[in-house]
Amino acid sequence: METVSASCVIEGATAVPRQDRHQGASVRLVQPRASVRAKRMEETPCVSVAGLSRSFGAGCDYCADPAAPLERNRCPKCGTVHAVRNVDFELYPGEIVGVVGESGSGKSTLMQCMYFDQEASSGEILVQPYDGGARNILELSSQEKRRIRNTVFGMVYQNPYLGLRMDYSSLSNIAEQMIASGDRSVSHMRSRGEELLGQVNIPAVRATDPPRTFSGGMQQRVQIAKALSNNPPVLLLDEVTTGLDLSVQANVLDLILQIRRDFNVSMLVVSHDLGVIRMLADRTFVMLDGRVIEEGLTDQILEDPQHAYTQQLVYSLL
Ligand SMILES: Nc1ncnc2c1ncn2[C@@H]1O[C@H](COP(=O)(O)OP(=O)(O)OP(=O)(O)O)[C@@H](O)[C@H]1O
Questions:
Q1: Does ligand 1 come within 6 angstroms of the Cβ of 83?
Q2: What sequence ranges are listed for the domain ABC transporter (predicted)?
């Protein structure tokens, strides 16, 4: 695997050598420019993730060592799959962070651990809007986790069947989310639902139709409306445009940017498509076999990718 010379420094950014033990090659993380870093240090992150891991299998002494080489993400000794391995990142208020990587690199698992759809094996997640970031949310009771799901995070799944009840009306889908966060006013739920569906361009006459009767793009937009219904400070978006045709994709991407402008929501956007990340993300990290192999400002990643895998991804865009 080709590595980049240590003298190659991006304008205003520092390239930090790191050993990629999994690939046996040198990898460098591209850190944000000093001015961005200084600004960020003054702010408190909305979400801080440290050492997050998720494995499938019992593990063994060999793969307990984070430096142990694996066969992709699988332990050659015991067969445990390390879907997410020791991932760290921070998400700041109003920021969009992209997570890019090929199929099976661990992107969805990472997001599902944050949303408690899956149980993380280890790690820490601190969430400022919940309790000032005082406690590791992975260690909270199931009741508190439910509260976080209902008040802090809005989730949009790649597969709308996971995020919507296809036989309920679109308004009922939104109302269900609002009830989960404690709203009991039918008139408020109706007016808020209509407002949100209008904002995501679902015609008013379709508000009482079930999403089963909608196109893929419309279903994604109803999911987005539902995810926004409790005014969550953080949106988690998993491959929201995959499978949509190009013009519908463009509408959904515009909508996401508009939501950021209007509501200043922080977003974690998972995609295997660097084109989507390019449009949306301020910062990006690249995952391969469960690990983060490169991270930095999206422009830097696109203009001067450091890792051979990222280079391959970027050049495939050209
Ligand atoms: N229940 C499971 N049991 C065993 N392995 C699993 C399980 N769920 C996921 N994995 C493995 O975890 C790894 C990461 O999967 P994940 O779905 O997070 O990848 P991804 O990057 O989101 O891929 P895609 O873009 O295709 O959705 C894969 O190797 C997958 O096979």
A1: yes
A2: 47-314
Q: Is residue 216 part of a domain?
A: no
Quote the pLDDT of residue 140.
97
> Each residue of 73-107: pLDDT tens digit?
999 999 999 999 999 999 999 999 999 999 999 99
Question: Distance from the CA of 79 to the center of ligand 1, in angstroms?
Answer: 14
Tracing tokens 């739920």 back to the chain, one arrives at 189
Q: Six-digit token pair at 261?
A: 């402008």
Give the nearest ligand 1 atom to 270 CA: 22
Q: Does a structural domain hold residue 4? A: no
Q: Which atom of ligand 1 lies at the shortest distance from residue 108's CA?
A: 22
Q: Are strands 15-20 and 25-30 parallel, antiparallel or unpaired?
A: antiparallel
Does 183 map to a domain?
no
Give the distance (Å) from ligand 1 centre to CA of residue 85: 12
Which CATH number goes with the domain that contains 23? 3.40.50.300
- Domain tally, the chain: 1
pLDDT score for 26: 36
CB atoms within 10 A of CB 76: 11
Residue 256 contacts by C-beta under 8 Å, 6 or more apart in sequence? 96, 224, 237, 240, 267, 269, 280
Return the pLDDT at 41: 56
**Domain residues for 282?**
15-152+232-315
Q: What is the pTM of this model?
A: 0.86
Ligand 1 centre distance from Cα of residue 56 (Å): 10
- Asked whether residue 222 is assigned to any structural domain, the reply reads no
Ligand 1 center to 110 CA (angstroms): 10
Round the CA-based radius of gyration of the chain to a whole number and report it: 20
Segments of the chain scoring below 70 in pLDDT: 1-42
Nearest to 84 by CA among 53, 115, 125: 53
- Nearest-CA residue for ligand 1 atom 22 is 108
Tokens, residue 43: 């702010």
How far does the centroid of ligand 1 lie from the alpha carbon of residue 71, in Å? 15
pLDDT at 40: 59
